[in-house]
Amino acid sequence: MTGSKKEKAILMFEGGIYYEGFYEGKIIESGGEAIFNTAMNGYQELITDPSYNGQLVIMTYPMIGNYGINDTDFESEKVWISGLVTKNYVQNFSHYAASKSLAEFINSYGYPVISGIDTRHITIILRDGGQSNAYIAPKEAGIGHIKNRLDALPKMEGLNLVSNVSTKNVYEKNVDFPDFRVTVIDYGVKFNTLRCLNNIKADVAVVPHNFSKQEILATEPDGILLSNGPGDPKTMVEEVETLKSLLGEKPVFGICLGHQLLSLALGFDTYKLKFGHHGINQPVKNLKTGKVEITSQNHGFCVNLLNDSVNYSNDTRLTHINLNDNTVEGIKNERLKAFSVQYHPESSPGPRDSRYLFSEFKELCLSGKREL
């Protein structure tokens, strides 16, 4: 509603607490798991990351929208968030490459943008009280209506969302004069993961999340990458069974949800974090080198390595930890040539401290080729 009086919006959380703000652009109702993101920029990459499917994103940085949306910085072909919550939304964006406003872009996919919300106060509530669903609706809809819609939302724990975001058909991203070939199992892969693989001279085949072992190996990979994605990893029983059957066949590299699924396939467990890690400034320690990497993260579930029933416990070791809360950020199984990290080494948005992992994956794949 640019140039006119803005419509009042209500953002309601479980337990009945709600905030009053304003719609930016179209008046749209929507709900999902409320998460706070601590990034100062990179919102275009964020909202097009399939890992955010089913989530209302609350930006802790106050000024959002100032550089608009351009035609190149996408991580998928559409918006995946359920809505965007800001404190100070900038309508009059300014950037030489911008083609449209942030709200216009998000609205075009049927999701709301609201402003005037004390997002840092909400962040404190979510950190202290834990994760919560939330719902956005016009104030005139009434508190009773909003509460009913909020109560009807499913919990993220126990929710399988990968079928929403995974490709339905195999496709390839190839390079001239490739050194090796990678098959990416698509649980919600980002474009930049494919770019990073191409940059290390890999031909890439992207396959659906529910491909069988035989279908995956038929793509003739030298290595298999398990992508990021949304939802609860414990719901993906068939995918985990497929990974179990693939372990030892080819080198495996898991990212985010892929890390969680690899861990389940190795016999470990996962659990829901109190409020998750969402942002581009998460400190992670590499236990081998002792170096600290600043990482890009978006996950609400975590791996638990303390499981007495683990099948491969003697071979799997912890490689990375989160320095904020000491949670698991990386594992490696030398015997099975499988490793994974909870964070996003492809970043976009975020720092590039962890890009070396793609080179390590390449070396693992090439060593496998040399053994044949």
What does this structure look like?
This protein starts with 7 loop residues before the first strand and ends with a helix. Strand 1 and strand 2 (18-23) form a beta hairpin. 23% of the residues lie in helices and 31% in strands. By secondary structure, the protein is an alpha/beta fold. The mean pLDDT is 95. The strands form three sheets. The protein has a ten-stranded mixed β-sheet, sandwiched between helices. Strands 1-2-8-6-4-3-9 form a seven-stranded mixed barrel. Helix 8 packs across helix 9 (257-265). The chain folds into two domains: 8-151, Glucose Oxidase, domain 1; 162-371, Class I glutamine amidotransferase (GATase) domain (Rossmann fold, 3-Layer(aba) Sandwich).
| CATH topology type of the largest domain | Rossmann fold
Order of helices and strands: EEEHEEEEHEHEHHEEHEHEHEHEEEEEH
Name of the CATH homologous superfamily of the largest domain: Class I glutamine amidotransferase (GATase) domain
Shape: globular
Share of residues in strands: 25-35%
Low-confidence segments, ≥5 residues, pLDDT <50?
Answer: none
* Structural class by SSE content: alpha/beta
How much is the average pLDDT? 95
The CATH architecture category of the largest domain equals 3-Layer(aba) Sandwich
Main beta sheet strand tally, sense and closure:
10 strands, mixed
Instruction: Enumerate how many helices there are, as a single number.
Output: 10
Helix content: 10-25%
Oligomer: single chain
Radius of gyration: 21 Å
Query: What is the CATH C level class of the largest domain, in words?
Result: Alpha Beta
In whole angstroms, the N-to-C terminal distance is 63 Å
Care to count the β-strands? Answer: 19
Strand order of the largest sheet: 10-12-11-13-14-19-18-17-15-16
Structural domain count: 2
